[in-house]
Automatic annotation (TrEMBL):
It comes from Streptomyces katrae. The keyword Iron applies. It comes from the Bacteria. Keywords: Heme, Iron, Metal-binding, Monooxygenase, Oxidoreductase. This is Cytochrome P450. The keyword Cytoplasm does not apply. Belongs to the cytochrome P450 family. PROSITE patterns: CYTOCHROME_P450. PANTHER family: CYTOCHROME P450 YJIB-RELATED (PTHR46696:SF1), P450, PUTATIVE (EUROFUNG)-RELATED (PTHR46696).
Length: 396
């Protein structure tokens, strides 16, 4: 196995369409070494589906970023609330955080939120009229999950737009200073918000969240980090899920027509839409604490391992004809929400939000079409997530 001379995930063409690069890397070797940044550093990229599932559940792959970077020189300045979240920890720390987070997103809790989600979608689309142009991202896909997760946690209305903007900056793959600054804005703002709530007795969602953190054994800094993770992860990937799904349907008219004729098929189509164009391209950081082998590739201890759900979901060994959007496909094994103990606890909420958004568009504006050629669409320049900067549509 020969490592690529350059990081294939930093090619400008990658952001517009990563799938040719994913396919090439997987064909060469489903687990291979790639260069990362400067200084001769390398990581191991996992692009095969079976290999990704194995990596997601291997306890020798640590999520503890502090342990990996301890003693290593760094020019980064991330706020601890962003750099030391549940996603950056191993059991038992991870277990404590997840025990607090999971009850927020149970099937029953999400079922209770569905009327609220519907009201938000109705409010956001109430001014839409056939024949007019909208940006689905700015007008629906961003504000819907931001509003829902903010309501779930009790974030005041006045704070939501700023937190969404800072969260957007947090995923910028081109400007590390911008990312670091956004992390401090989020961390400082949430620290002040939670401190004020703790100092003021009340019975709202924010006070309930703090009580859950206290009962779960989370200290002040851990409560802030969990709030930051829920806010950022609770809307960023859902925004991309909605945008990617609508674009995929518009690019596959037969699938779009089928759902338009029978919107009750939307819940069953969500897994295939997630598989076809995953809102999570590359999973968050892992490193191996011991020598190990994945898919026949030996990985020496102490190296970053990047699992790529976007590539694994297009592995023909798991999903025949993976580039085709097939609503009859059993796509339940997709890895867009991860796998194992770090699987996204907010998956039920993301599905409910996407389902409501898609149903509304299909039933009220069944003739909707792209307002621009597909090749002119702009994609966010981030490799962790995959999503559109804008999705101009003509309503009909």
């Amino acid at each position: 196995m020969t490592a690529p001379r350059q990081d294939p995930l930093r090619d400008p063409r990658f952001f517009a369409d990563p799938y040719p690069a994913y396919d090439r890397l997987r064909r060469e070797c489903p687990v291979q070494r790639i260069p990362t940044g400067s200084g001769g550093h390398h990581a191991y990229l996992v692009t095969g589906h079976a290999e990704a599932r194995q990596a997601f559940t291997d306890p020798r792959l640590s999520k503890d970023t502090a342990r990996f970077f301890a003693g290593r020189p760094s020019d980064r300045d991330l706020h601890p609330a962003v750099s030391r979240t549940m996603l950056s920890s191993d059991p038992p720390v991870h277990t404590r955080h997840r025990r607090v987070a999971t009850p927020l997103f149970t099937t029953g809790r999400v079922r209770g939120l569905r009327p609220f989600i519907t009201r938000i979608v109705d409010g956001l689309t109430s001014a839409w009229r056939p024949g007019t142009e909208i940006d689905l991202v700015a007008d629906l896909a961003v504000p819907l999950p931001v509003t829902v997760v903010s309501e779930l946690l009790g974030v005041p209305d006045a704070d939501r737009a700023r937190l969404a903007e800072w969260s957007h900056d947090l995923f910028d793959a081109t400007d590390t200073a911008r990312v670091d600054a956004a992390s401090h804005r989020i961390g400082d703002h949430l620290t002040a918000l939670l401190d004020r709530a703790r100092a003021t007795p009340g019975a709202g969602p924010l006070h309930s969240f703090l009580r859950d953190c206290d009962e779960g054994g989370l200290d002040r800094e851990e409560a802030v980090s969990l709030a930051a993770l829920l806010l950022v992860a609770g809307h960023e990937t859902t925004t991309h899920f909605i945008g990617n799904a609508v674009l995929a349907l518009l690019r596959h008219p037969e699938a779009f027509d089928r759902l338009r004729r029978d919107p009750d098929l939307v819940p069953g189509a969500l897994d295939e839409l997630l598989r076809h164009d995953s809102p999570v391209g590359v999973a968050t950081f892992r490193h191996n604490t011991q020598d190990l082998s994945i898919g026949g590739t030996a990985i020496p201890a102490g190296h970053p391992v990047l699992i790529v759900p976007g590539a694994a979901n297009r592995d023909p060994a798991a999903f025949p004809a993976p580039g085709r959007l097939d609503l009859d496909r059993d796509a339940g094994a997709h890895l867009s929400f991860g796998h194992g103990i770090h699987r996204c606890p907010g998956a039920p909420l993301a599905r409910a939000e996407a389902e409501t958004a898609l149903r509304t568009l299909l039933t009220r504006f069944p003739g909707t079409r792209l307002a621009v050629p597909p090749e002119s669409l702009t994609w966010r320049r981030t490799r962790l997530t995959r999503g559109l900067a804008a999705l101009p549509l003509v309503l009909a």
